[in-house]
Design brief:
This protein is of the alpha+beta class. Helix content is 53%, strand content 8%.
Length: 212
């Protein structure tokens, strides 16, 4: 049995959850508190999630390495160096406005308690500024994110730049999913339908751990 240590909100963790679902690999889910430094360090020597424990007892972190090891038959395809660079560019464009928009909402989900909320906020405010100020600018972030997504929508044919679902779709969907947390933001119908199709294909339920 696989065992996944993860954060619910984390796009890199969502990557692995999507891959596990698509590949039909049952796993035990362990949602760690964001301020739990001891558990990941004891498994891999670093506070880095996701961590997947394989049936042979091996612990692996780093989402792409995990997916590569899981997907031995390359059912999700492989990305060339240029394709990976292209994906990194897409994700860098959307991640800044998306995370500025979503982070102040994430910390009030069931995933966080008072201690982990404070830890998360202090860490990310060093880079992004006070969450209260981010909330005041949410309209700007929503407009910027929508602009990037409008350009992307034309590349969904029906999957990202192709007619076959694959790793590129997992990389994109895992980042976009977090924006659902912001009540004022709405995906276009095409992007929403794209994400819901991936949810079905990968048997993915964002808050599954809190609905049992």
């Amino acid at each position: 049995m696989y065992k996944l240590y993860h954060y619910v909100h984390c796009p890199y963790c969502i990557r692995v959850r999507l891959a596990l679902g698509y590949l039909e690999r049952p796993y035990e889910s362990v949602v760690l508190a964001y301020d739990d430094e001891k558990t990941p360090a004891s498994l891999t020597g670093a506070k880095m999630l996701p961590i997947l424990t394989f049936p042979d007892g091996h612990h692996q972190n780093e989402s792409l390495a995990i997916i590569s090891k899981l997907d031995e038959k390359k059912s999700l395809g492989t990305l060339s160096s240029q394709e990976m660079d292209d994906m990194d560019h897409i994700l860098s464009q959307i991640s800044s406005p998306l995370h500025n928009l979503a982070m102040p909402y994430w910390i009030y989900t069931k995933e966080f308690d008072e201690s982990s909320r404070k830890y998360f906020q202090l860490k990310h405010e060093k880079k992004r500024g006070p969450f209260g100020e981010l909330m005041k600018k949410k309209k700007i972030f929503m407009e910027e994110l929508s602009e990037h997504l409008e350009k992307l929508a034309g590349d969904l044919t029906p999957w990202l730049k192709g007619n076959q679902f694959g790793l590129k779709d997992i990389l994109l969907a895992s980042h976009l999913w977090g924006a659902y947390i912001a009540p004022e933001f709405q995906f276009s119908p095409s992007i929403h339908n794209y994400l819901q199709s991936i949810s079905q294909k990968c048997r993915f339920h964002y808050h599954e751990d809190f609905c049992r």
